[in-house]
Every structure is written in structure tokens, then in C-alpha cells.
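Supplementary Methods S3. Input chains for the assembly prediction are listed below.
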Amino acid sequence: MRGLAVAVVGFAVLLQVGGQLGVLRQVDRIVQTDRLLLREACRSAEGVAFVTRAQMYYYVEEARQCPRASFLLLPQDALDHLFFGPNARVQARHRMEGEFAQLHERLYRFPATTTPARLDSLRHFVILVEPWSLPRDATGREFFSRVVFPHHNATPLNGNGILYTRRP
Amino acid sequence: MNVDLGILFTRPYWLDEWHAVLVANRPSVMGVWSDLRQGADFAPPLLHFVLWLVRVVSGGVLAPAVGRSVMLAFTLGALVFTYLVLRRRFDRAPSMAAALALATHGIVVAYAFEVRFYAPWLFFAAMLAWALSIDAAHDRSRRRAVWIAVASAGLCTTHWFGIVTWFLACCGVALALRRNRARAVQLIRPTLAGVVAFVLVLPLFLGQRASVQEKGWVEELSWDQFRELGLSYWGSWLVLLALAGIAVAMVIGRTRQPTRDSARRTVEDPSIAALLALAFMPVVLTIVSTVQPAMLSRYAITAALA
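Predicted C-alpha cells for the full assembly:
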């Protein structure tokens, strides 16, 4: 009976490790897809920027070797337009992300930071952004594009990326 | 079936891990301290010092597999200490089942493979409980005092909420030994090394608070958070199953008295009481959250030891 109890608990441990493996594999698939996208963007786009460090830091090595890759500092007026009402609390997280990015840039020269205004001067660039960091509705990407890059056309790419091309 | 365990160790670091690894990549210990004071990571320095040392010893690069192996070692250490604490009072099988039960918790498993503070935090909490059980038959023991002091210092310099774990463990000891104050004082006095260590690293906390204008990333306290946190630790099927088993044994005639006697002796064991008291981590975090939001499951990881 006691041996059985130990075996049951041991089996529960294995299940938990298996569950963790499953989660990590799912994340890894997304990371692999976005890594390809990042490499391609670094080769061909005039700029590449990440909206969250949670996404960007999976590719520290790649981003360090890609002078065009940077972290996007969203200004307060953009945050006001993107996250309002019950979503306004998300603003604090973005502001904090920006503060941490600048701190790390100062201490470790990574990540490089950029602003929407700087990207706006480019003809085409890629923004890497995961859906959870955008406004929570069905049109999150379109809304983000309209607010942050109003002078560019947005084209969704494979993975968590959007290609912005300057309007003629 | 292809079971590739490598991903547990070799996948690239993610954001939170980089916060520790970038600091540990500094050439000197002073550099580590300076970075932490400037807010490069929001934590006391022990994890970063350990990683810095591991990096230096392992040839200058802290590979993900190396960093995560260290974290797994901390988690396994916590399991071993838990087993040793229980083994003093229970047979081999129940002690082993209880120690393994620790690794059935999702948070414990997740952080066994992440280069963050949670595995060391768990380790030092279990180590403190074990240290309390050293030389239990003796009123005075220098060996015990040293181990208690080391575990307490580790606990309070691994995570800022380590001091909460320390406080709860001390409460557990005091409650278990409420009829023997002299012994309670004997056991609790060396734990003050944790408070001393905490005070020594407090300048880092002040520097980290001053380094950013936004004062937190955790959402404001809500009932849902409390429910989630409570369910995460108190509502696991294993905990409920164990409690149900004890409850049944306490009402069935033949096992009632032995179970009650065993339960009483168990909660009066200071080292087990120190572990049991950690069940209140979610409650204390709720109280802390009225001032500074802190309702994240991982912040209560030591509750899994209860």
C-alpha cells in the first residue's frame, strides 16, 4: 500500500514534468518560427523592432548581431490611444518595459532602443509583436498599426510579425 | 516515443533569466553588486553571486544547460531536505511520498528548469527546516546553530520575500514550542542571521526601487488573485487527498487515537511546524499586496513545502 502511494506520487511528478515539456515545446515552436522571421527581416528590412522584451530576449544573440534590431519605446500618447478604459492598467507595464530596456541598454548595450518617430522615417520595416501585448480585441493589430504607424501600410507576416511599408 | 528532455536544459534563456544572467556575466563581484544596485534585476544578490561563481568555474560562459542544472540541483536539494525532515518522524515510504509530492507542483517543476530565484528559495526554506531538526535531542548544538544561520541568511538574500518565508517559519517554531520557550529561543536565535543578512543587502533594494518610476508589474490585489493563489497551493489534488485521508483516519474508531497522537506530535515538531507554517504564504502575500501588489503564484513557492 505504501509502495503504491509512492508510485502514484512518482507518477504525478512524471506527469508534471511531461506537462512542462509540452509547454516548452509549444513555446519553442513559436520561437523557431519567429527566429526565421527575425533573420529574414534583419537581412531585408530597413528596420526591425520588438514591442515586448519578453519576445525580444529569446533572440539575444541574433538581435546583438543585427544592428537594425531594436526595442520599440512606445510614447505616452500612443499608450493613451492603445490602452484605455479597463485596459489602461496595461500602460504601466509598457512604461516599465521601456524603463528596463533603457536601463539594460545603458548597462549592457542591449537592447538598442528606438521610437515610432524614428521608424516612421523608414520606407519599410518589420515589427515583431505577440498578440497578447496588443489591445485585446479582434482588430488588435490593425488598431495598433493605425495608432502607432499611421503613414504605413501593414501586412501580417508568418509568425508574430508585421511588415510596414510607407504609403506612396 | 521520442522524449527529448534536452529542451528542459538547453533552450535559449528567456527574458527573466537574462535579468539574472546578464548581471552574472559581469567580470567582478563588485560589478554584480553595482548592476543590482542600479536595478538590473529586482532581487537580493545571492542567486547572482552563485551564478557568477558557476560561470567563472565553468570557463567564463554561463550556458543555459549549466545554469539550469544548478537550479535543478537546488530543487533536488529541497526534496532531499524535506525527506530528511520527515524521515525523523515517519517511515521511509511516507517520507519519500511527501518529498516527491513537492515535485508534483507545477510551479516547483517549472522553476526547477529556470535560472531564477525560486529554486534556491525553496532550497534554503527546506534547508532551514532540516537545520532545525539537527541534534534534536540536545538543548544546545553549535552545529545546528551554524546550519540554521546559513539557511536563514540564504533564505533572506535569495528573494525579497524570503524574509516572509523566514518570518513564517519562525512563527511555526514558536507555535510548536509554545510550552517550551527556552528551546524556542534556542532555535530561533540563530535565524536572526537572516535578518542581519537582509539588512546588509537592503541598500540594493533601495537602489532598485529608485531605478525605475513604475513601481511594479503585478496587477492590483483582487479576490480572483487570492482565489487563484490559494487554489494553486491549498487546492491541489494531492493536498486534498492527503487531508481527506487524515480526516478519515481521525474518525474511524481503530485509527482515531493513534492518528490524533501522531498528528499532535507532528505539529509539535519544530522543523515540521516550520514547513507547515509556510502554507500561510498566500495569506501574507495578500496582506503585502495591500501596499505593494505581489499576488503571483511563484512568490508563494515555499508554500509548496507545507
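Chain B touches chain A at residues 3-5, 7-8, 11-15, 18, 22, 35, 38-40, 91, 93-94, 96-97, 100-101, 103-106, 109-110, 113, 211-214, 216-217, 219-220, 238 (CB under 8 Å). Chain B has 17 helices and no strands.
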